[in-house]
Design goal:
By secondary structure, the protein is of the alpha/beta class. The protein contains 50 helices and 24 strands. The strands form seven sheets. It has a seven-stranded mixed sheet, sandwiched between helices. Helix 41 (995-1005) packs parallel to helix 43 (1028-1037). It is globular, with a radius of gyration of 40 Å. Keywords: Membrane, Transmembrane, Transmembrane helix. Residues 460-589 form the NACHT domain. This is Peptidase C14.
Length: 1161
Amino acid sequence: MPLNRESDLYGSTAAVSAGFVLLLAAVATAVFVRSYGFAYAPPTSTAETASLAVEIQRKQRGVRLRQVNSFADNATPEKGIDIIAVHGLDTRSPETWEYKTQDGRKVNWLQDEHMLPVEVSNARIFTCDWPADLFGTLDAEEDTIHELALLLLAAVKGRPPATNDRPYRKDRPILFVASCLGGIILMKALVMASDEYLSVRNATRGIIFLATPFRGTSFQDVARWAEPGLRAWASVQGRRVTSLLDWVNSPTFKLTRLVSEFTQLCHSNNHQGYKVLTFYETRYTNLPAKVPLLSLLLPPSKKELVSKTSAVLDCVPNPLRLDRSHVLMNKFQGPKTSDADYKLVVDSIVDFVEDIRKGTPLEQANAWIRDKHYNKDRLRIERLSGNTLPMDQCYINLALVETPRDNDLKQRSGDDPLQSEHFSFAARLKIETPREHSQVELSKLFEPRKQLDGQMKEPRRILIRGRAGVGKTTLCKKIVHDVVEKEMWSNLFASILWVPLRNLKTWRGPPYGLTEMLHHIYLQQRPDHASLANALRQHVEDSVSLGALFILDGLDEISELLDEQHNPDLLRFLADLLNRTNVIITTRPHVSLPHAFQKPDLELETIGFRSDQVEAYLKAVSTPIVSRNIHSFLQRSPLMRSLVRVPIQLDALCIVWDETLDIDRLQTMTQVYQAIVKRLWKKDIKRLKESQPHVEAMSSQEIENHVMEEIRLLESLAFSGMCSNLIEFQSVHRDAVCDFARPTRTSLPVYETLGRLSFLRTSDGSADPATRTHHFLHLTFQEYFAAKYFVQMWTNKKTLQYVDLNRRKKRCCEISPEDFLRRNKYTGRYDIMWRFVAGILSEEGEDEMSHFFDKIEKEPVDVLGPAHQRLVMHCLNEVPHLPTGLREQREHRILQWMLFERDFTGSSTFARESDIPEGVLNCVLRASRDKTIFLNAFGHSQRHFSDTTMAAVVELFKDEDSYVRWSAANALGNQSTLSDATIAALVELFKDEDSNVRESTADVLGNQSTLSDTTIAALIELFKDKDSSVRRSAAKALDNQSTLSDATMAALIKLFKDEDSSVRRSAGKTLDNQWMLSDATVAALIELVKDEDRDVRRSAANTLGNQSTLSDATIAALMELFKDEDSNVQESAADALGNQSTLSDATIAALVELFKDEDSY
């Protein structure tokens, strides 16, 4: 009927009619939309409707996951999977998944124990509820699809871990079941997942879409009247229509682009792809027939709400149909025998789950590597006793120390002569204590650090050098363990590949490529190795992912492969491998790097234990009595004190030491090694011989009779290796020595015999026993057995015979023991062997010892250099009982050399040696006219003074020369434990007229971990000293005391007002170690943060930061430091607040502003 614009009455009537039609359309449209999955009827009252809707919406603003099945934890973590069901628009769980039977019963196929849960046992099933309301409130911003996708990602990422999973696991596989619009939101979430939500994308393995409208719905056919109607209905209720309707209308550009991005993701996600299946409806929905009065507005219409064209994806070649209308696409009655659609959906889910549990080729490869190469047996840390050392006690921890890159290779090789700058025993074994600032924690290996050019850089290519036995293999095992089990560095690397480079020696190429290497190292035993190796290579080379970290272990073991003449193709591959972006390379110190090797970002060395780690290890593996006895022995033996900082050596000492061992019998390194060797032979006899029930009662001679052939083989291997400068024995070296030594009584093959000896280690335990390489437990064991062979030939007056393992022909060599000694007595790599020779010969009688020392004195003799005196000194140290005249004669020559060095150079490198005979030390202190040179050298020595030497030094406290008194006090600085008498003598020096003496004395006492009340009181008296340097040292001396009395802290607080800033700074730093400070002390520190000296302010802030709880006033004072002109002070204030468990919003805001400052923390 045409409108008559001139008739107001007609116009009014038309307006009323139009409004009625619009309202009727709104009701119809609401019913239409809710036919997607409407689960509840609206209240009759409009007010009640609005009130209830607002309340429901308030409760459902977030996205929540709820597990709906009981989960059995009897599956391995790698078989675990999570199924997450996401509902559609204007509905919620559980109603949307429930089928209503004719008798009113509700069947939830996701939850019913006879339906999906029984089909996918050991899988967790979750429903995911998200804010899907059709109408939103006017008092809050509505959620966009982007925001809903983020909330979905957060909820999935935050789901609770399965109880049978690894505690740090983030990659538990996910299978999504998405209904209608829920599928669109899921697609959006996966496409945009990155950074912190990348784990959700990577964990997703499959998606089943139930009638998801990828190209819109039939709503577009009625949108012209439906959308105004919905807005009208929402207006009546004081609400608004959700904009999510745009995503189920006609296919918009945004929806088309999202589908395209998701399709691309399905094909390219980490080269894995997703398993995707779509289900589409085939029954029509006849809206006009279902909604009263709607037939008056619209003609009859039957069609799918989501057509097949809209519900399928191009990346799914075989979509499946369900014989049901849209409203039932996510509801099933079951069982499978009578509900064909349910059977089709559930069988598809079961197939997906089975395939997902098998894993993608990459997952299968990673699982294989984890199970076969990173398992507990492969990562096992075995002690010499055969017991396993738990990984959390894995040699306590490994210290790494930065190394100058221009180190002299000759120095590293150990062939330098016995010069002082290279001859420190600790330096030779690479067990020197590093400077604190150069130590690098393992977990912080890849943190940014300053480069030589002053720029900060995150290192990615790291070279780690280390000698045998110092812990390189243990380091690799610990890295793999912490990466796999604790997800260390998970924010940096997607995976870790530990490649024992020695395994490449059996690699038969060409071609030499990454795929082939991965197959050779990890996947040879897999029938599908080709596809797995290819998937692993693709993952490694994927520039989008975080990347793989390569642990290239043992570069020194493939030195022959680095020869350009050996195999150019393999060398090119190795160069590419070594030059990878993310790599840790381990090697022994002597290896020269190939020319094509790119300079590492960071070069480190594994070092031995620190003193405190030695103590911790002893407590962990020994009884208290044994621990105390070992500690007492080490105090007397500086050489062994250095040696046991090598982990394997400390372990060897621990297994030989028990509560019945006479510690007075062990005085030298040789005697300790003899005890260790005896104990290990007892262990090995049981492994080599079929039945030896009385082995524990055997004497040393009986043991040697039982393993005579094995000893001969070890001695030949050791001595030939020493002469050939070889410490890693390949099968060709072993065979050459065996042909030479010709063992006759061994019942086992030689390689099997060597494999059962505790004195040897193999780096490639997985290799064919006949082709394994071996090295001695530690270099010193090779030197010990070489010395045993030398002594045997020396005493029997026989020629030394050995194999030159560097030759291919004419390998057998002969030389008399005397000639060998003459040629090599000053060669650095034989130094420990000569010590052992002297120690073993001392048991052969005085004549043999005299003869040996006489030969040492024969030409060539280093008359003007120190090498000869050091050789004599080292050998004397291993001979506890020597004819008096012989010892006195040699010690007198050492004394004369020390005096000559002092007079000629004005210094004494000898006095720093820990091997100087005690008699020489005491003579120097008594007879020298200038004692200060020696005393100053003692201050830099690690030697533990005997009671006699200590008394001689204390006697010098009374010298009339103040410089002598100062030097005598300073000489005690490295003594970890001082007797009460010595401390009392030092306290007396507080009265010395020379301030330098008083200062030095306070410094020495500060090195003691525990001081008596009397000593602390004497130090407090020094707070009143007229010299500021004395006051500073007195305050600093209390720094190592774990607990200070209130009176002591009160005295320190008074120093806060000292006129000298260094005194104030030391007083504040001393309080740094006190965990509980009184209110008065804290108040004084608050005043100190206002000090004019920036170092004082920083020290005060650091001290306050160690308090577990700070008052509002203290926090306010620290916040004021954020305005400090010095960025280091700002950093200390920020660190102090960062240690607090809770902070106010105002404090957090201030911290945020601080971090915006480019010159700040």
